[in-house]
Design brief:
Layout (H helix, E strand, L loop, with lengths): L1 H91 L1
Length: about 90
């Protein structure tokens, strides 16, 4: 009977040690999950900011392209006027 009691006590101690080890592992995993969630939230904020910045730059780029086309058209018109003026000057002389 004493032997059974001793075996039972050893087994209880082993189970308690396993429980403690598993509880510790669970806490470590919870901490890892919390860190990962914090990192994910930070990355989501950064992604949102980058998307906003991208959209802004895309709008600016589109406006600059329009401005460039307008300037090109203005230059073409100026060159045509210069050509017309030069042609008339030669004709008048």
């Amino acid at each position: 009977m004493e032997d059974k009691f001793r075996k039972s006590m050893v087994q209880n101690a082993q189970l308690d040690n396993e429980k403690s080890a598993l509880t510790y592992q669970v806490e470590l995993l919870k901490d890892k999950i919390e860190d990962i969630e914090e990192n994910m939230a930070q990355l989501q904020r950064e992604h949102k900011d980058k998307c906003r910045e991208y959209e802004n730059l895309k709008r600016i780029s589109a406006q600059l392209k329009l401005d460039l086309e307008y300037c090109k058209a203005q230059l073409l018109e100026r060159n045509e006027l210069i050509k017309v003026c030069n042609d008339k000057t030669f004709v008048l002389i």
